[in-house]
Amino acid sequence: MRRTGKLIGKMACVSLLIFGCEVSNFDLQENPNYLTPESADPEYLLNEIQYRFQHFMGNMILNTDDVMRYEAMTDTYPSIVSVDVLDGSSSKEWEGYYEALNNSRTISELAEGDETLLLHNAINKLLVGYMTITMVDYVGKIPYFQAVNPSEFPNARLDDGEDVYLSVLEDIDQAILDIEASTFKFSTDLFYASDKDKWIAFARSLKLRILVQTRLNSSSIGIANPVAEINALLEGNLIDTEEEDFQYTYANVVEPESRHPYFQRGYVSDFGQYMGNYFMYMLKDSKSQKDPRIRYYLYRQAAADPLIIPYTTCMDEPNVVYCYLGEYYRGLDHGESRTGYGDNKQRTVYGLYPASGAFDEDQFITASKTTNLNGTGILPLLTTSFVKFLSAESALTLGTNGDPAELLEQAIRASMHKVMAFGNIKSDFLATDESVDAYVEEVLTNYANAASDEERLDIIITEYYLAAFGNSIEAYNAYRRTGYPSNIEVPIDDNNPTFPRSFPYSADEVQVNPFIKQKKNTERVFWDTNPEGFIK
């Protein structure tokens, strides 16, 4: 990988899904493959940004699925959060981000004085802004203001996360104004088909997310009165219907591979991971009834009793919390290093939502042989449910408008409805409205009986965690922000686990950019003001 200021060398690919272009070194003369404002097509560039966006966000989610116990972590934190995580041969999130940032700034330059590109540039700023704050949330300081400008800054310096956040907030405000003023559409908008009201709802919801995310250190981004700022957002257009949910929809296309990443993992070949026992316990056993979403989230491949093989190795281990949950929900505890039992076809895998795999009807068929939705799933990025959970957290912790209990109920019901309606399937095993009502009633009773606001916040974030399946970015941020769910499983094979409060920089970038030094995973991002050892 080239320097941050030099890595954007394969921008002139013929189509959105073909990336076979030559990567040139910017130490050479002017790069013929580099799309300048004079040679670039804004439609193509924005198509490319959409592709880069979903690829980046999807892979960042995969990076923390096991950290957040949705999948089982089968190693230690230092091993899985290594210097190669953001520089892997398949994902290359670091490189993808800066390619998107390069395209973004080219679009912005093209849009100067061109009213036909107002919507293009607004969408561009929102998508790349979302990627940018995600980069900050994962690695902290990043090259930003000097980045992708190799002629002036061959080695871009690191910028403080709060300064980057502030710049993104300014871009969001400008994007809203530009959307309102725009009269020309973006012909291949993969998210909202150029629906201006939906883009504004997303922009305002993204701003709400940022303000709640930074509530522990809001002054660092120049927010003197976050309550007033959030209340102003709550009074206006936010994502509050499924039609407005900000999500990416995958296609049933094999070449190039365009199916949901979970589907690729669980249905194209034998499942190479394990689902997390803690997550499955929370769905199956943490309340008086099963979570109504369990058959949608999870698919059991086999009705084989795992107490014989291989789980006999964990039954008598005092540090193993769950081992086997029963009813053929077959996964591993958090930090369980004993793997490779040859039970790939018997493990619980991803289900119908959000991967578009199989709905669990007790069919107990190997995932690859099931009747399923062929991976045409979704990446749930900022949904009605998420916005309601954020609003509930804000109302409880900051005193913003709204009743936290009512917002909590709305958030749970929005998640339930979205999951239960997914795929429009028919089955005798579908969840019922009565089961949803009973679930909600139990949560609200627990909330009403909570003895403190901290206990109440624990309930809100725990339900957020369960609703955020398919987007562990939300769970990773909420866990660092609040420390909840409080009952989350600690790694079983580590006497002194150190939870990754951030991820490392690209190893290649550290090697070539003298302004970037590798850091430890104990380093906290600017909005995480909680003490060391706060979470495990």
Description:
- This protein is mostly helical.
- The chain has a domain at 42-243 and 379-512: Serine Threonine Protein Phosphatase 5, Tetratricopeptide repeat (Alpha Horseshoe), CATH 1.25.40.390.
- The protein has 17 helices and six strands.
- The chain has a two-stranded antiparallel ribbon with strand order 1-2.
- It starts with 41 loop residues before the first helix and ends in a 24-residue tail after the last helix.
- Residues 1-34 and 87-91 have low confidence and may be disordered.
Nutshell version of this structure?
Keywords: Lipoprotein. The chain has 536 residues and is mainly alpha-helical.
Query: Which class of secondary structure composition applies to the elements?
Result: mainly alpha
Global shape: globular
Enumerate the strands of the largest sheet in spatial order, edge to edge or round the barrel: 1-2
Give the distance, in angstroms, between the N- and C-terminal Cα atoms.
Answer: 33 Å
Summed up, the helix count is: 17
CATH topology of the domain at 42-243 and 379-512: Serine Threonine Protein Phosphatase 5, Tetratricopeptide repeat
What's the β-strand tally?
6
Oligomerization category of the chains in this entry: single chain
Average pLDDT reading: 90
Q: What is the ordering of alpha helices and beta strands?
A: HHHHEEHHHEHHHEHEEHHHHHH
CATH class of the domain at 42-243 and 379-512: Mainly Alpha
What Rg do the Cα atoms give? 23 Å
Low-confidence stretches: 1-34, 87-91
Instruction: State the CATH architecture of the domain at 42-243 and 379-512.
Output: Alpha Horseshoe
Helix content: 40-55%
**Percent of residues in β-strands:** under 5%
Question: How can the largest sheet be summarized?
Answer: 2 strands, antiparallel
